[in-house]
């Protein structure tokens, strides 16, 4: 089993006919992902790596029973594409683009909450379930199948951590890159009930970073859904008041430091490793109870 | 991006919110002419970003031309919180029988847009008693609950102004949404003798990610002179993030998390970062070449950690850029490279053939240890 991206997922690619979208579509197919089509307005009737291309999401739902989307459309077109996916009734919408205006994110999020759609991102590498596939841009080869749920606010750091776990023989059920923006579709805490309900997930690994309060809320969610958990949080030496690359990684003088987040997580019984290299041992200890 | 008061007010006026008659000037003579145009008495206000300007002496009242000249000269020769005053706003002083407070702000902690209103304007809203401030969450799809705002105003003795306040709150919300404002604060909102409302100040912040759809604001930003030379170079290269720090080890990373982890691991090994640099996802040879030049040009850099992952472009691109940047230098500082992604083996071979220390693996710690070893530093 796995969460959100499962054998029942029938995904379409929005913005798949551009250069980057086409390349990523090819790699998602190689990773075994069940893609059932692509949607690019004006390109309906053509093909993309053997997938039928439709003009609208509604058409893809009707013709190939799509229930999820991964979107590579540029930031300026994200709102339109995501709203179309929500209105067409998709259950999962993955928004890869970075630099999406925050009010666009908020509008999509409100629409998703009304319809019960799960929105991953924006500014995310996406979601991967080893053995099932991936909706996103992460390298499939560093993720092994296993029993750990994984949540990350960062992309490339998640790949490094996954590679370290793989070398140590530890795999994941599903990894969700939640997105690096200060406001995202679904917070880390909101994924906890999904992992808690998945019989194959035996524990949770969190790759966090400075800024915001997601790690703190995740700790509270783990209080309601107890399971073994470990974390690594980047940004111990980041200066306060500076945006570290993406806007979510901004520590104020009062809030969002690694020390504060570590304190809250550890009080909830979550082990916080000081470096990625120490994670495999911390995970083994946590799983052993 | 924070806007100057006059820029914020221009947005307000464009949304039908009354503002005092005023002009932006940059000399005492211009200030005097502007004051004659708008009519005495006037306010002379330093255009600097951030709050606390009044307390820092950045605002003056002037009943006549001589005072305008004197105050303009004083302000243009001074600074507010180390920011040089380069422009002044000369405004007609609006007679007022009351001062209110209103703002919208997008709060990242609660992930929510809020409407704040208080019958007590002119002071910092954080200092007001709880019962004097209305805090209303705003639905992005439905807009603010203006009825709740009117009820609150009526309960605080502003019944006669309820409609005017609701109209202004509506116009300000339209302004927030039309311009992608993260903050739109009017403090004070003046109540004229006839009950009309005038925005006497404007603290406004725009979402950087939305600048592409607000050309006028974007061009104001481009002409602004608030970046260090290094930051300007980073922006010109199209880097996602560049922050200058006070250490001696340059960092070039793809991804904010990987960049921050690199900083943390360097520090743990007894090495202090000279900068944070995040390339963003589109790694090309030119981008990496420019980024490494930028990092190496920082004074006092005695080593560099390159930590890249290529999800779209092959790592050979990055390797070519690194080899070109290192090869151009006569004064060599160690540049240790860890990279993984497409074509990683070819990239490692190319780097090693060029004599660049390369870590073949996925652990940042290994690259940090290699660099520390080359510099003879032990944690």
Task: Give a structural overview.
- The complex is a heterodimer of chains A (289) and B (379).
- Chain A has 289 residues and is α/β, with parallel strands linked by helices.
- Chain A has nine helices and 14 strands.
- In chain A, helix 5 links the parallel strand 10 and strand 11.
- The two termini of chain A are 22 Å apart.
- In chain A, 59% of the residues are buried.
- Chain B has 379 residues and is of the alpha+beta class.
- Chain B has helices spanning 5-14, 28-38, 65-76, 146-155, 162-179, 215-222, 229-237, 256-268, 285-296, 315-327, 344-353, 364-375, and strands at residues 2-3, 22-25, 42-46, 59-62, 79-80, 83-84, 88-92, 98-107, 112-118, 134-138, 181-191, 197-199, 203-206, 241-244, 249-253, 275-278, 303-310, 335-341, 358-359.
- In chain B, strands 1, 8, 9, 10, 11, 12 and 13 form a seven-stranded antiparallel β-sheet that branches. Chain B has a four-stranded antiparallel β-sheet with strand order 2-7-3-4, with helices on one face.
- In chain B, strand 8 (98-107) and strand 9 form a beta hairpin.
- At the A-B interface, helix 1, helix 4 and helix 5 of A face helix 8 of B.
Q: Helices, strands, pairings?
A:
The complex is a heterodimer of chains A (289) and B (379).
Chain A: E1 11-14, H1 19-30, E2 35-39, E3 47-48, E4 51-54, H2 57-64, E5 68-71, H3 75-87, E6 92-95, H4 102-115, E7 118-120, E8 126-129, E9 133-136, E10 145-152, H5 156-167, E11 172-177, H6 188-197, E12 203-209, H7 214-224, E13 229-234, H8 258-267, E14 271-273, H9 279-288
Parallel strand pairs in A: 1-2, 1-5, 2-4, 5-6, 6-7, 10-11, 10-12, 12-13, 13-14
Antiparallel strand pairs in A: 3-4, 8-9, 8-11
Helix pairs in contact in A: 3-4, 6-7
Chain B: E1 2-3, H1 5-14, E2 22-25, H2 28-38, E3 42-46, E4 59-62, H3 65-76, E5 79-80, E6 83-84, E7 88-92, E8 98-107, E9 112-118, E10 134-138, H4 146-155, H5 162-179, E11 181-191, E12 197-199, E13 203-206, H6 215-222, H7 229-237, E14 241-244, E15 249-253, H8 256-268, E16 275-278, H9 285-296, E17 303-310, H10 315-327, E18 335-341, H11 344-353, E19 358-359, H12 364-375
Parallel strand pairs in B: 15-17, 17-18, 18-19
Antiparallel strand pairs in B: 1-13, 2-7, 3-4, 3-7, 5-6, 8-9, 8-11, 9-10, 11-12, 11-13, 14-16
Helix pairs in contact in B: 2-3, 4-5, 7-9, 8-12, 9-10, 10-11
């Amino acid at each position: 089993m796995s969460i959100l991206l499962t054998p029942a997922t029938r995904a379409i690619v929005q913005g798949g006919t551009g250069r980057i979208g086409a390349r990523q579509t090819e790699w998602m197919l190689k990773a075994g992902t069940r893609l059932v089509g692509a949607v690019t307005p004006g390109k309906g009737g053509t093909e993309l790596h053997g997938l039928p291309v439709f003009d609208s999401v509604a058409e893809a739902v009707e013709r190939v029973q799509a229930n999820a989307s991964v979107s590579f459309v540029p930031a300026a077109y994200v709102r339109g594409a995501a709203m179309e996916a929500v209105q067409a009734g998709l259950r999962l919408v993955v928004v890869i683009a970075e630099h999406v205006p925050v009010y666009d994110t908020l509008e999509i999020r409100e629409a998703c909450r009304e319809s019960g759609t799960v929105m991953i991102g924006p500014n995310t590498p996406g979601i991967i379930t080893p053995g099932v596939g991936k909706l996103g841009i992460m390298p499939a080869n560093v993720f092994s199948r296993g029993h750990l749920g994984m949540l990350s606010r960062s992309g490339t750091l998640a790949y490094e951590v996954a590679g370290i776990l793989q070398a140590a023989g530890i795999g994941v059920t599903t990894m969700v890159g939640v997105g690096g923006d200060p406001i995202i579709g679904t917070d880390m805490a909101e994924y906890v009930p999904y992992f808690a309900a998945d019989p194959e997930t035996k524990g949770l690994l969190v790759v966090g970073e400075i800024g915001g309060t997601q790690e703190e809320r995740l700790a509270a969610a783990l209080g309601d859904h107890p399971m073994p958990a470990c974390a690594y949080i980047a940004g111990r030496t980041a200066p306060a008041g500076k945006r570290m690359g993406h806007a979510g990684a901004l520590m104020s003088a009062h809030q969002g430091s690694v020390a504060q987040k570590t304190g809250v997580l550890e009080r909830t019984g979550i082990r916080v490793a000081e470096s990625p290299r120490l994670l495999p041992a911390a995970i083994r200890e946590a799983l052993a109870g | 991006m924070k806007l100057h008061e006059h820029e914020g007010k221009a947005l307000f006026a464009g949304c039908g919110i009354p503002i005092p008659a005023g002009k932006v000037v940059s000399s005492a003579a211009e200030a005097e002419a502007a004051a004659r145009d708008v009519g005495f008495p006037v306010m002379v206000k330093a255009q600097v970003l951030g709050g606390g300007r009044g307390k820092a002496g950045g605002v003056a009242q002037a009943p006549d031309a001589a005072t305008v000249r004197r105050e303009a000269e004083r302000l243009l020769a001074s600074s507010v919180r180390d920011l040089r005053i380069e422009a002044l706003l000369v405004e007609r002083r609006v007679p007022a029988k009351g001062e209110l407070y209103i703002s919208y702000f997008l709060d990242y902690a609660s992930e929510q847009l809020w409407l704040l209103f208080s019958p007590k304007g002119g002071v910092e809203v954080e200092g007001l008693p709880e019962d004097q401030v209305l805090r209303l969450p705003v639905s992005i799809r439905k807009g603010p609950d203006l009825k709740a705002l009117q009820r609150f105003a009526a309960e605080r003795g502003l019944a006669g102004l309820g409609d005017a306040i609701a109209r202004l709150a509506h116009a300000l919300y339209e302004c927030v949404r039309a311009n992608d404002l993260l903050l739109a604060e009017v403090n004070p909102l003046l109540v004229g003798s006839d009950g009309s409302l005038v925005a006497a100040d404007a603290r406004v912040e725009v979402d950087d990610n939305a600048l592409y759809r607000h050309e006028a604001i974007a061009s104001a930003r481009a002409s602004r002179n608030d970046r260090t030379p290094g930051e300007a170079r980073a922006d010109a290269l199209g880097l996602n993030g560049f922050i200058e720090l006070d250490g001696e080890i340059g960092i070039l990373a793809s991804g904010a998390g990987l960049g921050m982890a690199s900083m943390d691991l360097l520090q743990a090994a007894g090495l202090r970062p000279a900068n944070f640099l995040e390339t963003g996802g589109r790694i090309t040879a030119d981008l990496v070449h420019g980024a490494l030049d930028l990092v190496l040009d920082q004074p006092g850099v005695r080593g560099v950690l390159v930590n890249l992952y290529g999800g779209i472009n092959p790592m050979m691109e990055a390797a070519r850029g690194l080899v070109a940047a290192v090869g151009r230098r006569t004064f060599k500082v160690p540049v240790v490279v860890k990279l993984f992604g497409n074509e990683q083996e070819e990239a490692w071979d190319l780097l090693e053939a060029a004599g660049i220390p390369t870590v073949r693996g996925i652990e940042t710690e290994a690259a940090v240890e290699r660099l520390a070893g080359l510099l003879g530093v032990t944690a």
